[in-house]
Amino acid sequence: MKSLFVGNLSFQTTESELNDLFKPFGQVGRVNLVKDRETGRARGFAFVEMPNDEEAAKAVAGLDGKQVGGRNLKVNEARPKEATRPPRFESRGGSKERFSNEDYREAARQPREPRW
């Protein structure tokens, strides 16, 4: 199973159009048109899975640079997702290295002046 990245898509492109575009090159396993989480609009790229590696290579050769919907497609083999970086900050509790209430509990408290 070969996964192909399809970039520079028109935002109006549908999964069925992509399926029809790749069908002449061989069997299409799955089409995943990436959409924005909040708006539901297409983000302009997709992933197409093809079970046969030879057919996938033919699709890359035949479709890379082809004009579809007024845009030149970018088709190549999908790379694996890179590992994400760890978060810059700790979760809501914060880090004990920066600040902690425990430091103040053990310290002797100074009496406060009355506020009148």
How would you explain this protein's 3D organization?
- This protein has helices spanning 15-22, 53-63, 102-106; strands at residues 2-7, 30-35, 42-50, 67-68, 71-72, 74-77.
- It has 116 residues and is of the alpha+beta class.
- It has a domain at 1-44 and 66-74: 2-Layer Sandwich (Alpha-Beta Plaits), CATH 3.30.70.330.
- It has a four-stranded antiparallel sheet, covered by helices on one side. It has a two-stranded antiparallel sheet with strand order 4-5.
- The chain is elongated, with a radius of gyration of 27 Å.
- The protein starts with a strand and ends in a 10-residue tail after the last helix.
- The model has no long low-confidence stretch (mean pLDDT 85).
Number of helices: 3
Beta strand count: 6
Classified by CATH, the class of one domain is Alpha Beta
**H/E order of the elements?**
EHEEHEEEH
Q: Which fold name corresponds to the CATH topology of one domain? A: Alpha-Beta Plaits
Strand order, main sheet: write it out.
2-3-1-6
Q: Which regions are unreliable across 5 or more consecutive residues at pLDDT < 50?
A: none
Identify the CATH architecture of one domain.
Answer: 2-Layer Sandwich
Identify the overall geometry.
elongated
Sheet-strand content, in percent, reads 25-35%
Largest sheet: 4 strands, antiparallel
In helices, the fraction of residues equals 10-25%
Question: What's the N-to-C terminus distance?
Answer: 78 Å
The CATH homologous superfamily of one domain corresponds to: RRM (RNA recognition motif) domain
Mean pLDDT equals 85
The value of Rg in angstroms is 27 Å
Structural class: alpha+beta
